[in-house]
Design goal:
Structural class: mainly alpha
Oligomer: single chain
CATH topology of the largest domain: Helicase, Ruva Protein, domain 3
Order of helices and strands: HHHHHH
Largest sheet: none
Amino acid sequence: MKRLVLILCLLAGPALAVQPDEVLSDPALETRAREISKELRCLVCRNESIDESNAGLARDLRLLVRERLVEGDSNDEVIDFVVDRYGEYVLLKPTTSGANLILWVAGPVLLLVALGVGLLYIRRRSGAAEPAAALSAEEEARLKQILDD
């Protein structure tokens, strides 16, 4: 029984990150705030959303999100506002446009280039190992003479 309580407490940890004084009275707005909070990265905890983080900065961001929603912003407007303020690093799922497109494409392109260079190297190496021509009769006689001495 104690183990069950302990497991339930550990699983409920991230759910306790949102403090009761942060929760909006309108359930629809609170649901939207939680959805947005799950998409934003805690700048202190790195790979944790602000919805799950107990850091002070995450709390400030959660309050900012709720404040913007109460003012009437759409979900996209709230996310754009936070990104404008903190940069694209705050997004848990980075965009695939602009300068980020180079980063998304560079990995696969470099892999293909490396495979091409490797195949080219293997082809040239296997082609260079042609067997030498057989010795002529004069060369064999000379070789025999050298070995006998």
